[in-house]
């Protein structure tokens, strides 16, 4: 299973629905922060506690399979190469923070990689459920079944007044983080994204880049998530975030039409230039690739550029990341120049189909 996860550019939850027409919403994620009752939190760095949590997680494979019928595997991060750990980050299956910590750290992953449990990250467990499109309720229903199965076997640290207890006070309460990954090229091109982000933050939500906290919005991809976990229910959190995202989708669509109305030729020029560069370039760095791939997807959505596969954008985002690209090439020792050359070659091949 590990080889499949590492070798495949696209997890199932990044494969868009066939009825997706404008590729604005990429995916939805629900993450639950949980800690076992009577065990020191991960940040205490107590080896016996870390080992106990690790042992608990290894015993969960069968109970989780009984919940949803999926096969679950345990991935020991200590046994992975630095490159393979980086690939798991690039594929959004674990956080950069977990990549840096090794003793007794592991992942419990479903066969379709839509359920991933980070073990001994900031909390004992970070249970994640991921689906394509704007379907937070679907992600929540599945993660709730997983959560209940674990709690039935190992009770969580819970307080009647405060809710689920977590290492960071900002997660106390429901422990739930709901997030949606969005592709917002028109809002970015029109310069409206800064105002929109400011408004979202004022509503108590966070806006992050492609790889979460502290990362850039590469390829005009943003992640919108809740910040409050106390004083609001899981259902309310999901409903409120869904409404906010629906508003963002409407703004992106409006911006696309305004760009077409105000200067269609100018927009076509930008998009065709990006298409031309990637169709002919012999070297492309990672940041430029994502920027121009974003332009191409916008051009496809607006029927300006030739159509490509519905998952081409998501697939190329994954393939062109530096660590996955090295694995794809079968060479861990690519120089920066060789990597840029191979990235350009892969994109040219995709555009020529």
TrEMBL record:
InterPro entries cross-referenced by the UniProt entry: Arg_Kinase, ATP-guanido_PTrfase, ATP-guanido_PTrfase_AS, ATP-guanido_PTrfase_cat, Gln_synth/guanido_kin_cat_dom
CDD domains assigned to the protein according to its UniProt record, in alphabetical order: bacterial_phosphagen_kinase (cd07930)
Pfam families with a match to the protein in the record: ATP-gua_Ptrans (PF00217)
SUPFAM superfamilies documented for this protein: Glutamine synthetase/guanido kinase
Regulation: Appears to be allosterically activated by the binding of pArg-containing polypeptides to the pArg-binding pocket localized in the C-terminal domain of McsB.
Gene Ontology molecular functions: kinase activity
Sequence motif RDXXRA motif of the pArg binding pocket involved in allosteric regulation, residues: 339-344
Coiled coil (residue ranges): none
Recorded catalytic activity of this chain's protein: L-arginyl-[protein] + ATP = N(omega)-phospho-L-arginyl-[protein] + ADP + H(+)
Keyword check for ATP-binding: yes
Superkingdom per UniProt: Bacteria
EC numbers for this chain: 2.7.14.1
UniProt domain Phosphagen kinase C-terminal: residue ranges: 24-255
Annotated residues for binding of ATP: 27-31, 92, 126, 177-181, 208-213
UniProt similarity note: Belongs to the ATP:guanido phosphotransferase family.
Name under which the protein is recorded: Protein-arginine kinase
Organism: Veillonella orientalis
């Amino acid at each position: 299973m590990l080889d499949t996860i590492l070798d495949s550019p696209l997890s199932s939850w990044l494969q868009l629905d066939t009825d997706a027409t404008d590729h604005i919403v990429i995916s939805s994620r629900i993450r639950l922060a949980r800690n076992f009752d009577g065990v020191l939190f991960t940040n205490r760095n107590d080896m016996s506690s870390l080992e106990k949590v690790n042992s608990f997680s290894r015993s969960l494979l069968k109970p989780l399979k009984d919940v949803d019928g999926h096969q679950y595997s345990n991935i020991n991060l200590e046994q992975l190469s630095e490159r393979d750990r980086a690939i798991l980050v690039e594929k959004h299956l674990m956080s950069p923070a977990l990549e840096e910590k090794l003793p007794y750290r592991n992942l419990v992953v479903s066969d379709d990689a839509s359920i991933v449990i980070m073990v001994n990250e900031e909390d004992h467990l970070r249970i994640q459920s991921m689906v394509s499109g704007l379907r937070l309720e679907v992600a929540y229903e599945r993660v709730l079944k997983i959560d209940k199965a674990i709690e039935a076997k190992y009770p969580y640290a819970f307080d009647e007044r405060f809710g689920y207890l977590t290492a960071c006070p900002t997660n106390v309460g429901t422990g739930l983080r709901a997030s949606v990954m969005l592709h917002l090229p028109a809002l970015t091109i029109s310069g409206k994204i800064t105002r929109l982000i400011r408004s979202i933050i004022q509503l108590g939500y966070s806006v992050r880049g492609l790889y979460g906290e502290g990362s850039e919005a590469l390829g005009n991809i943003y992640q919108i998530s809740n910040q409050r976990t106390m004083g609001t229910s899981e259902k309310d959190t999901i409903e409120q975030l869904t409404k906010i995202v629906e508003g963002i989708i409407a703004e992106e669509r409006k911006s696309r039409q305004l760009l077409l109305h105000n200067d269609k030729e100018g927009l076509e020029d930008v998009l065709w230039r990006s298409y031309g560069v990637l169709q002919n370039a012999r070297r492309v760095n990672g940041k430029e690739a994502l920027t121009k791939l974003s332009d191409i997807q916008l051009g496809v959505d607006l029927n300006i550029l030739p159509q490509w596969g519905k998952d081409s954008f998501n697939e190329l985002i994954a393939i062109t990341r530096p660590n996955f690209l090295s694995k794809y090439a079968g060479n861990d020792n690519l120089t920066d120049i060789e990597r840029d050359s191979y990235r350009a070659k892969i994109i040219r091949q995709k555009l020529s189909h």
